[in-house]
TrEMBL record:
Matching Gene3D superfamilies: NAD(P)-binding Rossmann-like Domain
Naturally occurring in which organism (per UniProt): Spiribacter salilacus
Residues of the CoA-binding domain: 9-104
Pfam families for the chain: CoA_binding_2
PANTHER family tied to this protein: COA-BINDING DOMAIN-CONTAINING PROTEIN, CYTOPLASMIC PROTEIN-RELATED
SMART domains noted in UniProt: CoA_binding (SM00881)
Official protein name in the record: CoA-binding protein
């Protein structure tokens, strides 16, 4: 994935489901969520913790399948071993992009997503790409 391709994707996506979103300001997922919303993206936090129902006024969904609106991109802050299942869920909800954050790569997830026609970005952060 080239820098230009990543930026191209960020140029057309509007609604981003963030799997592994956190309400903890010390966590990268929280900072990226804040940055993306400040840049005008609609971010939908996804976290299975039953006690986490809202992050900064945004409703938190327990899984991708629980989201009740179309999603352009799934941005993942989870361990690589969880990615194949997340990729399958991204396909099931008709997402267009599977984006794996810095340090996150999974070949099986990439294959699942690409086979279904999704764009795949691995080991990159959208906030960093947008800041370039």
């Amino acid at each position: 994935m080239t820098e230009n391709k990543a930026l191209s994707i960020l140029g057309w996506v509007k609604r981003i489901a963030m799997v592994g979103a956190s309400a903890d300001p010390s966590k990268a997922s929280y900072r990226v969520l804040k940055d993306l919303t400040a840049r005008g993206y609609e971010v939908i936090p996804v976290n299975p913790r039953p006690d986490l129902t809202e992050i900064d006024g945004l409703k938190v969904y327990p899984t991708l399948k629980d989201i009740d609106q179309p999603v352009d991109m799934v941005d993942v802050f989870r361990p690589p071993a969880e990615l194949p299942e997340i990729a399958r869920q991204a396909v099931d909800i008709n997402a267009k992009v599977l984006w794996m954050q810095l340090g996150i790569k999974n070949t099986e997830a990439e294959e699942v997503a690409r086979a279904a026609g999704l764009e795949v970005v691995m080991d990159r952060c959208p906030s960093i790409e947008l800041a370039k």
